[in-house]
Design goal:
This protein has 154 residues and is an alpha/beta fold. It is built from four helices and seven strands; from the N terminus they run E-E-E-E-E-E-H-H-E-H-H. The strands form two sheets. A five-stranded mixed beta sheet has the order 5-4-3-6-7, with helices on one face. It has a two-stranded antiparallel ribbon with strand order 1-2.
Length: 154
């Protein structure tokens, strides 16, 4: 599998560009991303926008509640037993996420708000990522969905 800041091999295909999906983790200090081509992770690293991305899932609230602490989506997740952080406590992450979304949309990328913790929970991948053992179990479980090798920085 391929990792590293300068990897571009595999994106060019005969007759055009392969569909690439980006998963973007928004942070206050740094943003990271994973790129998936087909069922294969081809890039893990800091956020870069120089790839031919078609779809992007952004792990950040891209809207804020009209009133109260939660939007309808958080209320539904809560009813399912999934822990959620009120978006109003993630205001800086929200602002950064919105800027990234706007930039991607200006490049004709289809942008979606995602909540990877909820996705893992629904898929039954419920180990905590706080400890290395949990992160390794999560990575092993994700191999059922995408092809990749664990990073050294697990």
């Amino acid at each position: 599998m391929v990792y590293g800041e300068n990897h571009r091999k595999g994106f060019e295909v005969e007759g055009g560009v392969e569909t690439v999906i980006a998963g973007i983790d928004v942070g206050v200090k740094k943003c990271h991303m994973a790129l998936i081509e087909g069922d294969r992770v081809v890039y893990l690293g800091e956020l870069r926008l120089d790839f031919p991305i078609k779809y992007a899932g952004i792990d950040s609230p891209l809207t804020m509640p009209q009133e109260g602490f939660f939007r309808e989506c958080e209320r539904k997740l809560h009813k399912m037993g999934i822990r959620v952080i009120p978006p109003i406590f993630l205001k800086k992450v929200h602002e950064i996420g919105v800027k990234i979304a706007e930039e991607l949309k200006s490049r004709d990328v289809n942008v979606f708000e995602v909540y990877p913790y909820a996705t893992r929970w629904i898929l039954g991948i419920r180990w905590s990522k706080r400890k290395k053992e949990g992160r390794l179990k999560i990575l092993e479980s994700l191999k059922n969905y995408v092809e990749f090798s664990p990073c050294e920085t697990v």
